[in-house]
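Rotation project, supervised by the postdoc (A.L.). Task for the rotation student: set up a whole-complex structure prediction and record inputs and outputs verbatim in this book. Inputs entered:
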Amino acid sequence: MEKLTDKLFTVKYNEDSGKPHIEIIDQEVCGTKCEGKYCTHFCPAGVYEWNEEQKKTLVSFGNCIECGACSIGCPFDNIVCHSPRGGYGAQFKHG
Amino acid sequence: MADDEKFDAVVVGAGPAGTAAAYTMAKAGLQVALLERGAKPGSKNVMGGILYNHYLEEIVGDSWKEAPLERPIIEERRWIMTSDATIGIDYKNLRNREHPHSYSVLRAKFDAWFAEQAEKVGAVVVPETVVDRLIVKNGRVVGVGTGRGDAVYADAVVICEGIGLGTGLLEKTLINGKPLRRKLRPNEVAMAVKEIMQLDSGLIEERFNCDPGEGCTIECFGDSTLGMSGFMFIYTNRDTLSVGGGALLSEFNATLRSPNDLMEHFKQHPAVKPLLRGAETVEYLAHLIPEGGHRGIPKVYGPGYLICGDAAMLSNPVHREGSNLAMISGKLAGETVVHAKEAGDFSERRLAEYKGKLDHSWIMADMRKYDGAVPLLEHNPQMLTKYPKVADQALDEFFRVDGVSKWQKQSNILKMVRKEGMFRMGWDTLKALWTMK
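Outputs recorded:
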């Protein structure tokens, strides 16, 4: 298995649909200040994707495997990642 | 849980640190609540996968033998890699059969078992509960607020939330205008990923040269992480392999690499690929590892609270130790709260006992010893990029039988080393020895 999308299928999620636990504070910062689009690279679950047409960072929070890297790795402190509500989110079978 | 309950102690997070703290306090007769955000303890918890039974025994005694461990580690392999070669030290110690000191482990199972032990001695384990704030009154932590909107009060709050998701708790709680921990920097944490790959247990034993039920570790440096400071690993479980690794988050940012690309790069290495052949990925995980060294440790206690494990940045990446520092820091915090309860005094001065115990333990000795280790690699990338290549070339010359005399080969190797900067290499070796003295 090589592709990230296939790997993410192996993770069991209890999705809290419609309740995003990740927020981009200011999309303007992503569009104008952030050249590296760092989160689209360092996020191990490919949660972040830069959309050039909409000029915004799209967030697939349902893929999040809850490592917490985004709030430390964003050089502009522009991502807030909370814990999903109790019992929701990724459920590791092996860990 | 009834609204606004009061306990002697409330512990945030049922990982190795939190459960050890809860176990220690409950066993001494304190009323303890152990809050966990996962559906059950372990369902959110990740590590590479080696656990040290000495420390587990220190906490739960003989019942450590019933813990759901995977394989005792009989052999430790360390490989330095270039793109098409590996240089290894393989240390197989057969005395480990009689007295194993480390085991591979899968945290979903282990943490659930460990929390059960805490429950057996009287701790109240409350899963599916996110702690989203610390309640501060008159400059003192007096309890926690949960995601359900209720509050749990306690004389002492032991914070063991890790450094992954939910880090906000320490950063957003202010006492006298100061946060309990400053925001972490990307060069103080490693971004690690892991795959659990299923493989028949007999095949594992054949491929990794293990006797039935026994296991080994392989940790790979150099090209395995594309020269970034970190390492990749393969650990043998019963019928799965834990394959993963990582590097400083700052280095992912500097190179715009993705953790999954690093993972695939490692899995495709010619020395690794045959070991993984036919193994199917059954879970993909990611986790942050504290690598801030001694200088990165926050103040671990204050009015009404104590911080343990990853949340206190306690980990030793040089020896891939973390869960043991977590367990023992949890135990020391637990003992401190027990003494505070006996004295009827939960003042900051009283809770400072925890810091004193930590400072005099092997935990802080190790944290101080390796304080500079991660920055050394961070600032000297040649150690993981250039030097493995020089060693590879020298060994190629040494082992290759090709009509060249051994005198000539020796002189070729010396020339090669001189060309690559003998002085610099000698200096770097001294620097490395000095840093980890």
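Student's summary: Chain B has a mean pLDDT of 95.
Supervisor addendum: DSSP finds 15 helices and 19 strands in chain B.
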